[in-house]
Amino acid sequence: ENEEHGLRQVDWEPEHKSRVAAVAGRECRATDKANKQYYLDFNVDDRYLFSTNQPVRVTVEYFDEGKGFFALKYDSNDPTAPDRARSKFSEYVYRQDTRAWKTHVFKLPDARFANNAIGGNDFVLTSEAYVAGRDDLCVAAVSVIIGGIQVAVSPPAASADGKSGCQVDARITGPLGPVGDGTQVAFAADRGAVTPSAETQGGKATARFVGAAQPGEATITVRCGDDAESVVVPMLPGSGEVLDGKLVVLSLGDA
Q: H or E stretch including 141?
């Protein structure tokens, strides 16, 4: 059983059984494409993270062999993600065939980790090895640490009139919880205008964004220390404040 410090790598049938390998001087767990095993599944101790809404960093040490990619699929709070947010994909990590051990940090802004991912786990590493020509994924170490930036925009769009806008809230979390009051947070926008900086209160910093005079999209980047997170805000034709609401005309329930 592969478990340490509250993080467990889980093998289960079908297609989710790892193999032990020795690669470039390190013991690791690997997918096993030849035997139709394509995934490495992980479960975080519920005493650390369970049914939450936290920014999380997942650090993966992998062997850079071949030209395929791998990704992380996780149980999230994103209502737009597939399978009721239980199968959200991270960015793809493309291997360069350097045949060296490398490290990649996945920044997950909305981890739920309520054991809802496939197999009742929290996240899975996948190399999509079932695609022809893809190599197995070899992983020597994985760590999960709370911390990062969550950005919310309300309303989620602005009018392109040069004077209307929206509120940008940045929630800053460290390994021990929300950062202390007075922490400096920087805001920048590639179009329109945004409050350049703000200090945290209760772990949250707030800025005001005003849309440009022409329709399009603006990317707002929030920075705190070495962390950064971006959000795209549509700027819509017209003028005045954008109203945002939801009306349920028919609930399909589990259907």
A: strand 138-146
